[in-house]
Amino acid sequence: MKDWAGKGAIGRGGRCALHQRIRQELRTKLLDYDFTHFITLASNHQPLGYLRMRALLKEWDARVNREINGPKWGKRPDERLVWFAFPEKMDVNPHWHMIVQVDQDIESSTRAERTERLFEIGHMHWLSLVRQGSFDCQGVESAGVIQYIAKMSAEETHFNKFVVFREFMNI
């Protein structure tokens, strides 16, 4: 790996230090958001790998956003859920840890009501995609959840696999 300062290849120790710095910068950036929910989407099924879990995450995101925001949800990117998903144990018990920010200034009362049902809606759609799966949704009590959710990013292979909601937007 070349370092961006143009000084040549980065050794193992330098790469590790760079990776730790990037991970810390990510955690710092995540503090800029006002996350409202901590969600775990578990497959409880070992053979599912990263690519299949990513496809399931994308489908879950589409279904939940459609139910909350209506059939034209794709044309209203400003109303979609804001989230970051971190993979964990992709070889043993693949699951996603997500931190989610729900829009607090919803003008439509029906959309506000649907958004308040995120737990119910998210649970229903995850289990319809992964029958043996499990779904957990909790309120975010402190910024400590960011440290917890990003713990798997300590491994370089996992750090490169976290997903941001915008990756699934057609904008």
Automatic annotation (TrEMBL):
Protein name from the UniProt record: Uncharacterized protein
- Please tell me the species this chain comes from: Phaeobacter gallaeciensis
Instruction: Recall the taxonomic lineage recorded for the source organism.
Output: Bacteria, Pseudomonadati, Pseudomonadota, Alphaproteobacteria, Rhodobacterales
